[in-house]
Design a protein that fits this description.
By secondary structure, this protein is mostly helical. It has helices at residues 17-32, 47-57, 74-80, 82-90, 95-101; strands at residues 41-45, 64-68.
Length: 107
């Protein structure tokens, strides 16, 4: 569940807080013990694919990852869905920079 959706905590920033959440999962898993974190895998579908790519780019250490039907060109998506630009602006982000940062095709 993404932040701020369906009664969830936080605000939906389309890939900012969600990525931080994923990045915090590895230390949390290590602290719980009994988990084989050396064999952690990452799987993301659609928007989760975008989050997976961003987490990997920011150093998430996993054995393997797959992104299925991910949003790899968020800037192009924003041209089709103007509400995305509004959501990023509402979150106080530099919209154009955020779109580039979240678009794996721009890396």
């Amino acid at each position: 569940q993404y932040r701020g959706n369906d009664g969830g905590d936080g605000a939906d920033s389309f890939g900012a807080g969600d990525v931080r959440d994923v990045l915090h999962l590895a230390p949390l898993a290590r602290s719980l013990g009994g988990l084989d974190v050396a064999n952690a895998y990452l799987l993301g579908y659609s928007r989760g694919g975008m989050v997976a790519m961003l987490a990997l780019a920011r150093g998430l250490d996993v054995r393997a990852a797959a992104a299925v039907g991910g949003l790899y060109d968020v800037a192009a998506l924003a041209n089709e869905r103007p509400e995305l630009r509004a959501r990023l602006a509402h979150a106080g982000e530099d919209v154009e920079a955020a779109l580039r940062e979240r678009s794996a095709v721009a890396w």
